[in-house]
Design brief:
This protein is an alpha+beta fold and 196 residues long. It is built from 7 helices and 9 strands. The strands form 3 sheets. Strands 1-2-3-4-7 form a 5-stranded antiparallel β-sheet, with helices on both faces. A two-stranded antiparallel ribbon has the order 5-6. It has a two-stranded antiparallel ribbon with strand order 8-9. α1 crosses α3. The longest helix is centred in the C-terminal third of the chain and has 17 residues. It is globular, with a radius of gyration of 18 Å.
Length: 196
């Protein structure tokens, strides 16, 4: 989605950046792993197809994708410390580009996406619903993957989900509770069951 093409979201553990062409080789190597393919219900793509998919997702208005970067090394060394300069980071800043890529978080959007008009607090819709007749309700589906095993079970997924939800709330002016419907699901990950 073009809305996040210059966005960097900072958390205490992770940094979220848009999915850029320089991320494709690492992402492609992750998706060659049979377990990740199974867990994400994905088919293996060629590197060329992966680059095409990255471009498609960047332009699609119904997909919001961020790459998850770690603020620490696999050994726990702090790589990105808090400072005033962090507020001005761009996705292509060398400091950001040097952080370990650990996963991705996606939001798939359906229906009329309410957005904040410039300079107001009232939401407006993405589509011209008056011409279309009945407005389709806004829905969002989220997916998250921490692909690097050494970065799992460290709170990265939870923080990435919080950051993307806060970002969408700021874009749409919709409270997070209106965007998320809690469902009880069970997922088998690495041989053990986890309730989400």
């Amino acid at each position: 989605m073009k809305a996040n093409e210059h966005t960097v979201l900072l958390g205490s553990r992770v940094v979220l950046v848009p999915y850029l062409p320089e991320h494709v080789p690492k992402y492609h190597s992750w998706m060659q792993d049979e377990e990740l393919q199974r867990l994400t219900a994905s088919e293996p793509l060629t590197l060329k197809e992966e680059y095409e998919m990255q471009q498609k997702w960047r332009l699609d208005e119904d997909k919001l994708t961020f790459i998850i970067l770690s603020r620490t090394s696999p050994s726990g060394e702090q790589l990105l410390v808090d400072s005033e300069a962090l507020r001005e980071l761009s996705p292509t800043n060398p400091v950001v580009e040097g952080l370990p890529m650990v996963g991705d978080v996606n939001m798939f959007l359906k229906g009329s996406i309410p957005r904040k008009p410039s300079g107001t607090s009232a939401p407006e819709c993405d589509k011209d619903v008056e011409d279309e007749g009945e407005e389709e309700p806004f829905e969002a589906e989220m997916e998250i993957m921490i692909a690097e095993p050494t970065f799992r079970r460290k709170g990265f997924a939870l923080e990435a989900l919080q950051l993307i939800l806060e970002y969408v709330q700021a874009l749409t002016s919709q409270p997070v509770l209106n965007l998320v419907q809690r469902r009880q699901t069970t997922q088998k990950v690495s041989g053990s069951l986890h309730h989400l």
